[in-house]
Amino acid sequence: MSGLAESLSRERLEKLREQYQTDLFDDFLPFMERYVVDHEYGGFLCATDRDGARVNTDKRAWYEGRGICVYSFLYNNFGSERKYLEVAAKSAAFVLKNKPAGEGLWPATFTREGAPASPPDTAIYGDLFIAEGFAEYSRAAGDPRYWDMAKEIVLKCVRIYDRDDYEPRIGETYLGPGARPFPGARIQGVWMVLVRIATEMLKTRRDAEIEAIAARCVDAVMNRHYNPAFHLNNELLNHDLSRPDNEYGQLVYTGHAIETLWMLMYEALRLRDMGLFRTVAGRFRRHVEVAWDDVYGGVFRNLQHVDNNVWSVDKVLWAQEETLIGALCVVEQTGEAWAREMFDRTYAYVQAKYPLKQYGFPLWITAADRKVTFERHANRVENFHHPRHLMLNLLALERMLKRA
């Protein structure tokens, strides 16, 4: 069978759509329904092993917000099935039991029943994922109060992010324990989450403050984080958006860059700015090509030092799937040969390495070594990047088939 690189035939697109539907509706969602969705208390029991055995019953703010978003998106885009809306609604009610006052943040973790299991978080990601979930749920439930709450959370998080002492230990995320403190760093990962939330919120309602945040994210990623010395995006900048003159000036977190850049392509499409789209697509291509492992295939997520060529060589599923989203977006919009080849190469690699069916289990490997070596046990089910990839690319394939 020919790939996208040789052909954009209806047969090829239909076969891709069939595989994506199988991966989403026959593999991922049944496992979630049986083992991960907490039908009693609401929310998601993501600490679950490959066979469905429960590792623990803790729930994380990150995964609640992400789960609300996924199930609301399912409802909004794949048949309006009531069961999807009910899962999202129960998780929304679960997190609202601990809605923080003022400038506070949600606890990082909860008990199964919904009591706080940790102090308020210090990073804003958990609250931002809850906002993303609420924004999508607002459209699903037809309840504008959740959109309003999402905006309130986003504006609060931006105020926290703008403090010059925000997250001083952020460097440890990328360089490991003992990394130099970096209070107030400008973080590509934060712009990434913010621009995705803003793009989706603005599809529902026009809002000047959310528009300003989206524009601020695009400017930061395209004009500040981009380093013309090596044509890659630095992950961390100084608080004033200047470039660090220490080891952080050599840090390129390719996983976030690839993910952020497809989100900027989606934002460019919302803005109907094809000039921006083409520039972003070119930078997306550059990051994937630099991150590609020519020995074993797939992309690496973390270039710790550009000039010394020091990489973290683990292979996480999400980085491969962000590549697939971005590559198919370019194929859909422009049909560029390089994007078709990139999609084919990455798709073949992912389908060969990550599905657990070959080892007798459902779902996919989410984190592994460079060769994607199978391990019998896992301590978490990934409830966001994987289904988002399947849903977004299914929708893209549907649009392409309608145009074919």
Task: Provide tags for this entry.
404 residues; mainly alpha; two-stranded antiparallel ribbon
The portion of residues forming beta strands comes to 5-15%
Q: What does the main sheet amount to? A: 2 strands, antiparallel
Share of residues in helices: 55-70%
Overall geometric form:
globular
Q: Please, what is the average pLDDT?
A: 97
Radius of gyration: 20 Å
Count the beta strands.
10
Low-confidence stretches: none
Order of helices and strands, N to C? HEHHEHHHEHHEEEHHEEEHHEH
Specify the number of helices: 13
Give the strand line-up of the largest sheet.
Answer: 1-2
Describe the structure.
- With 404 residues, the protein is mainly alpha-helical.
- It has 13 helices and 10 strands.
- The protein has helices at 10-36, 61-77, 82-96, 125-141, 144-161, 172-175, 188-204, 208-225, 254-271, 274-291, 317-334, 337-353, 385-403, and strands at residues 59-60, 109-110, 186-187, 226-227, 232-233, 236-237, 302-305, 310-312, 315-316, 367-368.
- A two-stranded antiparallel ribbon has the order 1-2. A two-stranded antiparallel sheet has the order 3-6.
- A hairpin with a 4-residue loop joins strand 4 and strand 5.
- Helix 2 packs antiparallel against helix 3 (82-96), helix 4 runs parallel beside helix 7 and helix 10 packs antiparallel against helix 11 (317-334).
- The radius of gyration is 20 Å and the shape is globular.
- It starts with 9 loop residues before the first helix and ends with a helix.
